[in-house]
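Whether sequence alone determines local backbone shape is best considered at the level of individual chains. Part of our work consisted of pairing the sequence of a single chain with a tokenised description of its backbone. This step matters because it turns folding into a mapping between discrete strings. For completeness, the protein is quoted in full, as a sequence line and a line of structure tokens:

_____
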Amino acid sequence: MKVLVTVKEVAELADDFEVEGTEVDDRYLEYDLNEWDDYAVEEGVQMNEEGIADEVVTVTIGPERSEETIRMALAKGADRSIRVWDESFEDVDLLDTEAKAEIFSAVVAEEEPDIVLTGVQAGDDAFGSTGVALADAIDFEWAAVVNALDMDADEGVAHVRRELEGGVEELTDVELPAVLTIQTGINEPRYASLRGIRQAQSKEIAPKTLADIGLDADTLESDLTLTDMYEPESESDAEIFEGDAGETAGKLAEVLREKGVAE
């Protein structure tokens, strides 16, 4: 069984930063593997270790800089990676879900995985639709917000537990090939060992252009336009009590009585 995991490098803001137009300068950003994708990678690696999967391949859309982040997935046990990028992306402010799904669809057509794992959402733009859009594009069955997975490779079925709204969970079976969007809590992502980090240096990261996967710059055209970016105002009505424990407890009790919480 081949597992394909979509991974994304996300930008994390420094505590203090400045917005310039619709961008934040690189000096205020640090890059890391998307949290939810980390859980998806871990799930794929565990399937490999349990003998369910023969190969775990990651695929990302990102510039050469992102290879440092991608190697963390390799250091944790993924076998090889694919990175899609060319000059067509450089003028794109916001890559929409349809474009991502089309690019990943082309990679799926080449790799022919039995199962695709994606993080349930991205930590930077908070998009959470790529996995399901991909499943629709390639006509795979899918399950979203998966927080438990039990693979039955012989039967070609994934037994999954999904997190629904209001704390409700659903148990369902998904026939392979399938796309599963992975929720946090499904496992505990491992730290990359020094041995794994060294081994990752020799693992393959295959750079591919849009032309390499049978697409062109028209794929990136979008109806979405990034029009503004700003730092939201922060407000706080927190009240800090001064004094020793007895004094602060008395002041807290007074507030609770005023609010009707205590008598």
Q: What stands out?
A: The two ends are 64 Å apart (CA to CA).
